[in-house]
Design brief:
Length: 652
């Protein structure tokens, strides 16, 4: 600065020009015609007035258990604005602002209470050098509200975030860096409280861009704390992605990514993952897909590793027939168990277009073998048990080796013999030890039971899965469909193992999609080794206009379900009609009737209501009216409910 004034004193014009250019390099690109100290490019908002009232009366066995009446009056202003300071390329801004005040009066039986509440929010974003390759964003957001909820509940909420972002669009090292601090606070009378704070840094960069490919980097650092429950942790995530397309076909590509995540302090989590995908076009109608993935989880001082390789061929014989065959293998290694898995899969899809419709058939078949190898030692366990009144002892802990069971008397002076003194059977994954009358055991005797036990028992599992689906679409509006899924599990082990579920699912029906009517009917059946059900589903929708400005739409749904376990039955119904009047002059009126019913063998839930909506827009004034009245509401207790609200908005 001294040289600047010295240059002026010496009247050295060249030095003055050089110094001025150094000071005002960021502004050299600005156009004089656009320079303005403050300029608004967009400004809009609304004044809002709202009144609402709610009445709830609950009764049980004819006695009123709850009688609540509430009135709310709300007034506020909303502003949305954007513009620039000095120049649009130098500093631009976006501001969203809302200030709303409530006054609520509530009556519970004969007591009344008045609550004054607020709901304030603002969101500000500043963009510096927005149209340059290197620019800055500064943002701030805050939301604050207090409001009363149902019954005695009052709640206080605070959400805020402040930070900045830097973007570099140059070819040397394009990146985006974002750093911000956020806070969330909630306090209430009956609900759980939360007090969260976090510091965040996010980074994204295109490390390299080549023809048909790119290499990117994403990372995120967070420092999180929650004061109510005393939760604290720091986390670091990093992810690297590489993609490259080669050859003349878009089916030739290589995609890979590496991800790493670590969390410390109260939570201990550390994972590393890697995937590698390739696709290769072999010849017309034939190409291959290959996937390799690896993950390593070191969370909570445990070790878990998984590696998987999948290779598949897809053949499109002609436009209608596509066949896909794949083979895969997976290895899982943990501190307590190893799992080896091999899977083969075949899928055939046939699609044929016909006049005003199409035919589709799909067949899928997969077989998977898994071998579970335990790393835990085989333990010798002994326990004392007493025969029940039915002369039975039950053992249901997974991991027991059935052939190793031995039974003696409590004094260890007599060994009982299977098939003479007792008998062992397995029913529903439970070991039943049954005393044989006439043997050496007496009724109700207390005995000692010895067996071998493994925490994660060795076993082999075979999963046989079949999928069949077919559909027919004809005459533009009609659709027939059939789907069946069959999954069989075959288990072999010397130990008692937690059971796996076999299941069979089948559903079929039809659908009609017409201009005025849309309906669907479906029968669904599901059965498994654990549970099962049968259901019938029907849906009907219809909509049509009349008298130019009127439109009616109706909806009916019925679903009846029967469950295999116990005498359980579900019957669900929905009726709804909507009458709309829209003369296209800023007026819209809706009258809606709705009936819901859910009936089971245990309870009945039923609701019947009438809803009225009205909207009128005249110039820049918008009026919204909403009314809801329960004609009937029943679930354990009868409830009468009436709600009314009117909102007036003046736009500017």
């Amino acid at each position: 600065m001294r040289k600047f004034f010295k240059a002026i004193r010496n009247k050295s014009l060249l030095k003055v020009i050089v110094v001025l250019n150094l000071l005002f390099i960021p502004f050299n690109y600005l156009s004089a015609q656009e320079i303005s100290l403050f300029k608004l490019s967009d400004f809009s908002g609304a004044f809002i007035l709202k009144y609402e009232s709610t009445s709830d009366i609950d009764s049980f066995d004819g006695l009123v258990s709850s009688d609540i009446f509430r009135k709310y009056f709300e007034g506020g202003i909303q502003i949305n604005s954007s513009g620039s300071i000095y120049h649009p390329n130098l500093l631009t801004f976006n501001i969203n602002f809302s200030l709303v005040g409530y006054r609520a009066k509530r009556t519970l039986f004969s007591d009344s209470d008045i609550n004054n509440s607020v709901n304030n929010t603002y969101n500000i974003v500043l963009n510096l050098f927005k149209k340059k390759k290197i620019h800055f964003d500064i943002f701030a957001m805050k939301g604050f509200s207090t409001s009363d909820r149902n019954y005695f509940e009052r709640k206080y909420l605070l959400n805020e975030s402040i930070g900045f972002a830097i973007s570099n669009g140059t070819k040397l090292l394009p990146f985006r860096l974002k750093a911000y601090k956020s806070k969330s606070l909630s306090e209430s009378i009956s609900y759980e409280e939360r007090n969260e704070e976090s510091k965040n840094i996010e980074f994204y960069s295109d490390l390299a861009r080549i023809k048909n490919g790119k290499l990117t980097l994403r990372s995120n650092w967070k420092d999180f704390s929650e004061k109510v429950y005393g939760l604290n942790f720091q986390s670091f995530d990093i992810r690297n992605d590489f993609s490259y397309f080669y050859g003349n076909s878009k089916r030739n590509f290589v995609i890979s990514n590496v991800s790493y995540r670590k969390m410390t302090e109260d939570l201990s989590l550390e994972t590393l993952g890697f995937t590698f995908n390739t696709s290769n076009f072999i010849r017309k109608g034939l190409f291959s897909l290959n996937l390799f993935s690896y993950s390593n989880d070191l969370s909570n001082n445990n070790s878990y590793q998984k590696g998987e390789l999948v290779s598949s061929l897809r053949h499109k014989l002609f436009d209608s027939l596509t066949t896909t065959a794949s083979l895969s293998g997976r290895l899982e290694n943990s501190s307590f168990q190893d799992i080896k898995s091999y899977k083969g899969q075949l899928t055939i899809n046939y699609t044929k277009k016909i006049k005003n419709g199409a035919i589709n058939f799909n067949l899928g078949k997969s077989i998977e073998n898994r071998d579970f190898i335990s790393k835990s030692d085989i333990s010798e366990v002994s326990e004392f048990r007493k025969f029940t009144f039915s002369d039975t002892i039950l053992l249901s802990i997974p991991g027991i080796q059935v052939d190793s069971i031995r039974i003696t008397n409590v004094d260890l002076t007599r060994i009982y013999i299977e098939y003479i003194d007792y008998e062992i059977t397995i029913v529903d994954n439970v070991i039943n030890i049954l005393r044989i009358p006439g043997g050496a055991m007496s009724s109700g005797e207390r005995v000692a039971i010895y067996y071998h036990y493994q925490t994660f028992p060795d076993h082999k599992l075979r999963n046989d899965y079949t999928q069949i689906s077919a559909s027919l679409y004809f005459l533009k509006y009609f659709h027939l469909f059939y789907r069946k899924y069959d999954n069989d599990m075959f288990l072999s082990s010397e130990y008692l193992v937690q059971p796996y579920e076999d299941f069979e699912s089948e559903n079929y029906g039809f659908r009609v999609d017409a201009r005025l009517v849309n309906c669907e009917y479906m029968i669904d059946r599901y059965s498994s080794s654990f549970s099962g059900y049968r259901s019938r589903y029907f849906r009907l929708n219809s909509g049509f206009g009349f008298l130019k400005y009127f439109k009616f739409s109706g909806n009916f749904i019925s679903k009846i379900t029967h469950y295999d376990n116990g005498d359980l039955r579900g019957d669900y119904k929905l009726y709804m009609g909507d009458l709309t009047f829209n003369p296209r002059h800023g007026v819209r009126f809706n009258a809606i009737y709705r009936y819901l019913s859910n009936k089971t063998s245990v309870y009945l839930a039923e609701r019947e209501s009438l809803i009225i909506k009205f909207n009128w827009t005249i110039r820049k004034v918008v009026i919204d009216l909403f009314f809801e009245h329960f004609l009937n509401d029943y679930y354990l207790a009868n409830k009468k409910h009436t709600y009314f609200s009117i909102i007036i908005r003046r736009l500017f």
